[in-house]
Structures are given as structure tokens and as C-alpha cells.
Amino acid sequence: MDAAATSKRMQDLPPKGGYGPIQTERIKLRSILNAKSTWAIFFATQVVGFYAYYLNLKLVRRNQIEMRSARLAIWPALIAERDRAVLRQMRRNRDEEAELMKNVERWEVGTYYGEPIYFLDEENQFREPLFIEHFAHSDPSDYSTRSWRHLFT
Amino acid sequence: MAATAKTILPEESELNVQELNVSWPVLQTASVYIGKACEWYNNEFMLCREEEGDPRRCLDEGKHVTACAMDVLKKMKKHCLEDFNAYMYCLERSSGTLDLNKCRKTQAALDDCVKNNMNIERPPFGYFCEAKVHNTSRPRPPPRDEPIIFPDPTPGLSQDVPREKAKYHNRFWYKS
């Protein structure tokens, strides 16, 4: 404080010899690739990439066909077993309904008090049971499990 | 419900047959051999089901299909169990979807064994995706969806009716 008070006041001045020259020219960034080589690399990678994609797609399609072929080979056996299971369950459901509704007057099995559910071409026409019909008399927890599986797989 | 009292359903005793009590990896591993060995039964069953549209009329065909597949699996167990298990193990451990393209070596071994012992040749690539012509002695049922024929169609104009030139030209600006 003493020094500042005692010494002579000095104005801020430029350095001796003045400031250096101000840079006004543009300095270009160091460029690795020019436009031509950028385009060339772009097209080259595109062509190579799409060709590789095409080759891979062919392979994927080929594997899909092979897997589908294996699935179709076993398909009839699965369908045959499924048909038998559905028919068995249809009979069980019908018997269960007859037992359940035997004390209800005018109730006819498979109808709503004699009013048919479906318009059938003939009495014996086969209608595939709906999901809820198939599981009508099952345990509610089983029904829940199977409906989740049905909806999310 | 779907079945009324007048619907004729088969008895349970008619439906009880030995089912394929094996898991999916076994079926996938044996699929092409089963498909090749049981080709006639499979085609017969699928044609029946498609033509009749009623599983009750194709129960016998379905039983033949299951019995034939069961027979192939039994023979497989008898003759080629080791190769079969090796191939199945490879399929199971190689991918989650049992992709067939991962296990060509074990597949070749099983192919060889199956061909020598069971006389089933592995069908060529994509064989079961191809359309097949199936000859059967089962009578063909009448077609289910017959086209509707109307007895009184509107008679059209004959071809040589004179046609006047349009009075106001064409209705589309780009044709005028």
C-alpha cells in the first residue's frame, strides 16, 4: 500500500516496440480427405457393404427355407395329435355341460335354451371350438396360464 | 358351445393312441427322416384334412401318421441312438432355435447311419417346402364352397347394339 501510494502513478501502456501484427488471414484446417476421395470411399463402402449384405441375406433365406422344410416335415404329426386332443376335449366339455345343467329346465346342451349358437348347414357340421369354449370348464388358473401363453407367444 | 347334442363326436377310446411322447429337440432332429419315411401318410392326412375340412373324418389317416412317426423314432432308437444323441446335443447347444446349419458334421454321421440301417435317405434341400402331387384311392368329397349361381341374371345388351357418339366428349380431362 505504501509503495502504491508513494510511487508515481503509471498508465497502462503497450509493450515496448508495440503489439505484434493481428492475424486476419484465414488458416485452413489440415484436410486428410478431399471431396473426390470422400465420394470415392463412400461409394466403395456402399457397394461392398450392400454386396456383403446381399450375400448374407441369401444365406439367411436359405437357412429359413431349411428350417421351414424341417417344420413342415413334422407338421402333419403335430396336427394329427392336436386334432385328437381337440375332439377329446369337445366330448368332455359336452358331457360336463350336460352334467352341470341337468337340473335346469328347458336347457339343451350346446344351445342357449334351445337357441343355437351357430347357424349350421347341417346338424352334424363341425365347428372348431373357440379358445374360451375349449377351456370353458377348466380350472381358472389353467385358463389364465393358457390365455397368457396364447396372447404372448 | 361348439358341440351340440346332435354333433357326432368320436368316443375317447377311438382317440386313444400312442402319441409322440418326445420333446421338441427330438422331433426337430428326426424331422426330415420322419417326413421322408412317412411321406405318403403325411400327404394323405394333410390332403384329407384340406378336402374334408373336418378332423372327425381324418382320424384314421392321423393315426397312421402318428404310428408311422413313432415307428421311425423307435427304429432310430434301436439303430442310431448314439449318432442321434450327438446330433441332437449339437443342435441344442449351438443355437436357441435348433438351427440345422450349425451341425453339419454330426448330421452327416447320422445321415450315414440312417441310410445304412433304416434305408431312409435324407431328402434334398427344401424338399418339404415343394408342392407335391399325391395319388390316393380315397374318394374326393364334394367341394365345400360352391360358387353361387343366380337363376335369373340380368340379360346384357348384345354386341352389335349401335352406340351413339358421346354428346359431351370424355369425362376425363386428360382424354379429351
From TrEMBL, chain A:
<comment type="subunit">
    <text>Complex I is composed of 45 different subunits. Interacts with CARD15, but not with CARD4. Interacts with STAT3, but not with STAT1, STAT2 and STAT5A. Interacts with OLFM4.</text>
</comment>
<comment type="function">
    <text>Accessory subunit of the mitochondrial membrane respiratory chain NADH dehydrogenase (Complex I), that is believed not to be involved in catalysis. Complex I functions in the transfer of electrons from NADH to the respiratory chain. The immediate electron acceptor for the enzyme is believed to be ubiquinone. Involved in the interferon/all-trans-retinoic acid (IFN/RA) induced cell death. This apoptotic activity is inhibited by interaction with viral IRF1. Prevents the transactivation of STAT3 target genes.</text>
</comment>
<dbReference type="GO" id="GO:0005743">
    <property type="term" value="C:mitochondrial inner membrane"/>
</dbReference>
<keyword id="KW-0830">Ubiquinone</keyword>
<keyword id="KW-0249">Electron transport</keyword>
<dbReference type="Pfam" id="PF06212">
    <property type="entry name" value="GRIM-19"/>
</dbReference>
<dbReference type="GO" id="GO:0045271">
    <property type="term" value="C:respiratory chain complex I"/>
</dbReference>
<keyword id="KW-0679">Respiratory chain</keyword>
<keyword id="KW-0472">Membrane</keyword>
<keyword id="KW-1133">Transmembrane helix</keyword>
<protein>
    <recommendedName>
        <fullName>NADH dehydrogenase [ubiquinone] 1 alpha subcomplex subunit 13</fullName>
    </recommendedName>
</protein>
<comment type="function">
    <text>Complex I functions in the transfer of electrons from NADH to the respiratory chain. Accessory subunit of the mitochondrial membrane respiratory chain NADH dehydrogenase (Complex I), that is believed not to be involved in catalysis.</text>
</comment>
<keyword id="KW-0999">Mitochondrion inner membrane</keyword>
<keyword id="KW-0813">Transport</keyword>
<feature type="transmembrane region" description="Helical">
    <location>
        <begin position="39"/>
        <end position="57"/>
    </location>
</feature>
<keyword id="KW-0812">Transmembrane</keyword>
<dbReference type="InterPro" id="IPR009346">
    <property type="entry name" value="GRIM-19"/>
</dbReference>
<comment type="similarity">
    <text>Belongs to the complex I NDUFA13 subunit family.</text>
</comment>
<keyword id="KW-0496">Mitochondrion</keyword>
UniProtKB/TrEMBL annotation, chain B:
<keyword id="KW-0679">Respiratory chain</keyword>
<protein>
    <recommendedName>
        <fullName>NADH dehydrogenase [ubiquinone] 1 alpha subcomplex subunit 8</fullName>
    </recommendedName>
</protein>
<feature type="region of interest" description="Disordered">
    <location>
        <begin position="136"/>
        <end position="163"/>
    </location>
</feature>
<keyword id="KW-0496">Mitochondrion</keyword>
<keyword id="KW-0472">Membrane</keyword>
<keyword id="KW-0677">Repeat</keyword>
<comment type="function">
    <text>Accessory subunit of the mitochondrial membrane respiratory chain NADH dehydrogenase (Complex I), that is believed not to be involved in catalysis. Complex I functions in the transfer of electrons from NADH to the respiratory chain. The immediate electron acceptor for the enzyme is believed to be ubiquinone.</text>
</comment>
<dbReference type="InterPro" id="IPR016680">
    <property type="entry name" value="NDUFA8"/>
</dbReference>
<dbReference type="GO" id="GO:0005743">
    <property type="term" value="C:mitochondrial inner membrane"/>
</dbReference>
<keyword id="KW-0830">Ubiquinone</keyword>
<keyword id="KW-0999">Mitochondrion inner membrane</keyword>
<comment type="similarity">
    <text>Belongs to the complex I NDUFA8 subunit family.</text>
</comment>
<dbReference type="GO" id="GO:0006120">
    <property type="term" value="P:mitochondrial electron transport, NADH to ubiquinone"/>
</dbReference>
<keyword id="KW-0249">Electron transport</keyword>
<keyword id="KW-1015">Disulfide bond</keyword>
<keyword id="KW-0813">Transport</keyword>
